TrEMBL record:
Protein's name according to its UniProt entry: Uncharacterized protein
Biased composition (Basic and acidic residues): 325-337
Lineage: Eukaryota, Viridiplantae, Streptophyta, Klebsormidiophyceae, Klebsormidiales
Source organism: Klebsormidium nitens
Keyword Metal-binding on entry: yes
Compositional bias per record (Gly residues), positions renumbered to this chain: 362-374
Length: 600
């Protein structure tokens, strides 16, 4: 930032906005008007997607400001570094030397991927991006081609940073709503049309629970919602407030701009911090002590008399990856491996609440890198959601387990029957599999195809291998399709590839012990690739060149289009509750039984 340091105002005046999506003229016109009538304001914080999803009018508006033809009226900070035209953020990040917000043009700053900034005396924590279980679980740490997806490491780093300071953060900015935020909210007050169980991201929820921000601001649900304050568990018991903001210039006239005038937590006494208005509810993120579950350690029950009863509490179901009650109720860093420790050195030493060893993170721990495939793969560098021995695996999704591999329901399935075939141990890709593991996975694939054929359906299988510093766990997606869609599959994949500027080439589809080696040779090394197996078992491959970008969900997008359900291309549109997943997995198990390689 420029200029001489000035002493921060006692209670800064803050404007907050939902997803601008490039509509900067609309946003800044409104901001300038509000600044005149109710200001002056000290800063504007934007959550949600800052850049437009595609080119056109909105991207022209962005260019007006970036080119200096129009002026940003207030110091403005944003977190959504993806969308059309967002390359400028990467370019400016590369230029900038220090940490802290990066100036994009005068008065406009990108806060960064994850961290805490001091703005006008306020501590502002932020996490950019959106939650995508595939890249998040795989730890999409080093791949800049998926800038919109959140990374496990960012989350760890932020949670650890916040833990270093006794003083609560004033703001937490996330793009997505936190899963479970509607827990304990009166039906009459909850925004219409949102599923209280499925809405929002589990990562945003976990972060809100860890950081206990005084204000949590999020966008992307496209409604305005200010939740009744909730009291955090733990020693300080201060209250948090959640505010969801709509998209800038939305046609439903939902509120997208909100003003606050908070006194920084550094200037508040513990008593001030603990003050709770009469409509305060218990935390939506914590299991409540009135249930049969034991209360979490080290936490006091909410102060009687200051908490309104809001009906039957059902804490904990928001966090779908961690279902064991003992894990849900941990108040420390749990089983998470320390981010700093992974990078080499953690200043917190023994006081760090995250794990400082990598053993037990996978089936073999962090094995020797030189170990050949026959000795078993090295364990994942961080907890992996696909390693069957990992405590983080979602067992309710598992359909069948064999000697080296298993079948599980896909998260956010395109249709019922959309499953994954995975190695039990942490192998990065099909091409890297030892012969026996590969052969067994192909037997599973054949069994699934027979199962679908018995219902007069064909199937599509695909794998997208993306090499990541944090490790990748191979998964072959298998999805049933109608016979008529099957006839068009090849054409659809080939033309979608062409649209994305690459060609799919036919490769041998060996299913025996030599198959992995053949695939490795076809890829031409250990690099990234996309492979699809068509209903007639023809395989098409694209070996991805270093630096080449391929949509993360390419295989699924084409399939959704082929089925005539493009709205299901994004798995997030297909999210299910744990109960629905369990039901679907049980039904699939029954159907698959006669074909299961473990049964025949
Ligand atoms: Zn540590
Ligand atoms: Zn794994």
């Amino acid at each position: 930032m420029e200029g001489a340091p000035v002493s921060p105002p006692a209670a800064p005046r803050v404007l907050l906005s939902g997803s601008p999506l490039g509509r900067l003229t609309t946003l800044f016109k409104r901001v300038a008007a509000v600044n005149k009538s109710n200001g002056p304001f000290d800063l504007l914080l934007c959550v949600g997607q800052f850049f437009p999803s595609q080119g056109g009018d909105a991207s022209a508006e962005v260019a007006e400001y970036l080119g200096g033809r129009k002026v940003v009226p207030l110091p403005t900070y944003f977190i959504g570094d993806y969308g059309f035209g967002s390359e400028i953020v990467q370019a400016k990040m590369a230029e900038s030397s220090g940490s802290g917000p990066v100036e994009i043009c005068p008065n406009l700053y990108f806060l960064g991927r994850a961290g805490i900034a001091e703005l006008s005396g306020l501590r502002v924590a932020f996490l950019a991006g959106e939650y995508d279980p595939f890249s998040y679980r795989a730890g999409a740490g080093s791949d800049a081609s998926v800038p919109s997806s959140q990374r496990h490491q960012d989350f760890e780093a932020l949670a650890a940073l916040a833990n270093d300071n006794e003083r609560p953060v004033d703001f937490l900015l996330t793009n997505e709503w936190p899963r479970g935020i509607l827990e304990g909210v009166d039906k009459a007050e909850a925004p219409a049309g949102l599923d209280p169980v499925a809405v929002g991201s589990p990562v945003a929820a976990e972060l809100a629970k860890d950081l206990k921000p005084r204000y949590h601001i999020a966008g992307t649900e496209d409604v305005f919602f200010a939740r009744a304050p909730y009291r955090n568990r733990g020693p300080s018991q201060h209250v948090s407030r959640f505010i969801g903001l709509a998209r800038v210039g939305n046609d439903k006239k939902q509120k997208y701009l909100h003003a606050l005038n908070p006194t920084p937590s550094s200037q508040l006494s513990p008593a001030d911090l603990a003050a709770a208005p009469p409509n305060t509810t218990p935390s939506p993120y914590e299991p409540q002590p009135s249930t049969s579950q034991p209360a979490a350690q080290n936490s006091k029950p909410p102060v009687p008399g200051s908490v309104l009863s809001t009906g039957e509490p059902e804490g904990g179901q928001y966090w779908r990856w961690q279902e064991q009650p003992n894990k849900r109720q941990r108040t420390d860093g749990g089983d998470k491996v320390c981010f700093d420790f992974q990078k080499g050195r953690c200043e917190r030493g023994d006081k760090c609440r995250y794990r400082h060893d990598l053993s037990g993170a996978g089936p073999t721990g962090r094995g020797s890198e030189s170990g050949g495939p026959s000795k078993g793969p090295p364990g994942p560098p961080a907890p992996c959601w696909f390693c069957l021995s990992s405590p983080d695996v979602e067992t309710h999704l598992v359909i069948s387990i064999a000697e080296h591999s298993y079948v599980a329901l896909a998260k956010g399935p395109l249709i019922p029957g959309h499953v994954l075939v995975l190695p039990i141990e942490h192998h990065p890709s099909l091409a890297a599999l030892p012969p026996d593991v590969y052969a067994e996975m192909m037997r599973y694939k054949d069994a699934l195809q027979k199962c679908f054929a018995a219902q007069n359906r064909a199937s599509i299988c695909f794998e997208r291998y993306l090499q990541l510093r944090a490790g990748t766990h191979a998964h072959l997606q298998v999805c049933p399709i109608s016979r008529s869609a099957a006839d068009k599959a090849r054409l659809h994949y080939e033309s979608a590839a062409e649209k994305n500027g690459f060609r799919l080439v036919p490769v041998p589809a060996e299913e025996g012990a030599n198959g992995a080696e053949q695939l490795r040779n076809a890829v031409g090394g250990p690099g990234n690739y996309f492979m699809v197996e068509l209903p007639d078992e023809t395989r098409l491959l694209h070996a991805i060149k270093p630096g080449e970008k391929l949509p993360m969900q390419f295989g699924r997008e084409v399939l959704a289009d082929l089925r005539g359900t493009p709205e299901r291309a994004d798995w997030r549109a297909c999210k299910l509750t744990t109960e629905e997943e369990t039901e679907m997995a049980d039904a699939f198990k029954e159907m698959f039984k006669p074909f299961d390689i473990m049964e025949t």
